[in-house]
């Protein structure tokens, strides 16, 4: 991290912020706190302007071509799973999904819409490549194929695609942010809504949560929710299979069975 000390000055205390890439850091100096990231997407500037992530303070290009961004870092905490039913979560997700500025920026960056057909094709290729032949995988793929025509939705929006509770930051001043936008896509909002509802909110509360978001719960929405939940579950099985993580692989195969059973009963 010598390059960061050179950039900021030796008076700053710098520590890794975690994450898979090792490109994120916290920096502290005399009460100031920064979140630094190497080679963030230009998308970050729009997210900051929209108030969806902490304010972008500056961007600097290093001699080696790396671009460093610095955001104001707030005292606060990640949401707990039972916080996800809050009206503030529904309202922020609605704001994100209805932002023309976010959508225009992702389009300018060359993002193409993620469609159910492309998702299914990618999953099928990965399953074949990894040699997964469990019956439950075949049943899940058959369900995705069967419902493909029922989940077509043309009103694509910017989706975060990883609405895990750990990515929601509530500051001590009660401002909610959604962070870690590296996987953002243009897609059906049900990708975000479905994962959030299925994993965090009791089904008898879906209608109330969706009302706070601004939608009605109808049969097509239910179909779209479960389709994307099923697709994510297969993707998770693939992930843990490639990591040779037998424990989590077994857990996700069990979850996949539960989801398939649920969809089959609808």
TrEMBL record:
The residues covered by the Aminoglycoside phosphotransferase domain are 17-216
Source organism of the structure: Metabacillus herbersteinensis
This chain's protein is named: Phosphotransferase family protein
């Amino acid at each position: 991290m010598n390059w960061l000390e050179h950039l900021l000055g030796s008076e700053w205390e710098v520590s890794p912020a975690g994450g898979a890439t090792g490109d994120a850091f916290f920096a502290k100096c005399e009460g100031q706190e920064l979140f630094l990231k190497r080679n963030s997407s230009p998308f970050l500037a729009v997210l900051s302007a929209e108030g969806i992530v902490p304010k972008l303070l500056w961007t600097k290009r290093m001699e080696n071509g790396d671009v460093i961004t610095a955001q104001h870092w707030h005292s606060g905490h990640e949401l707990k799973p039972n916080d996800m039913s809050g009206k503030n979560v529904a309202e922020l997700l609605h704001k994100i999904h209805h932002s023309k500025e976010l959508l225009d920026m992702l389009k300018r960056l060359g993002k193409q819409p993620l469609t159910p057909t492309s998702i299914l094709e990618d999953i099928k290729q990965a399953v074949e490549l990894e040699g997964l032949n469990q019956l439950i995988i075949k049943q899940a793929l058959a369900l995705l194929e069967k419902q493909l025509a029922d989940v077509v939705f043309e009103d694509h929006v910017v989706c975060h695609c990883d609405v895990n509770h750990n990515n929601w930051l509530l500051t001590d001043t009660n401002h909610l942010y959604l962070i870690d936008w590296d996987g953002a896509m243009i897609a059906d909002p049900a990708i975000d809504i479905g994962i959030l509802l299925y994993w965090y909110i009791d089904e008898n509360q879906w209608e109330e949560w969706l009302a706070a978001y601004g939608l009605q719960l109808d049969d097509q929405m239910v179909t779209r929710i479960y389709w994307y939940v099923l697709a994510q579950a297969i993707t998770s099985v693939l992930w843990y299979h490639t990591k040779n993580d037998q424990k989590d692989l077994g857990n996700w195969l069990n979850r996949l069975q539960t989801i398939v059973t649920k969809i089959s009963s609808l």
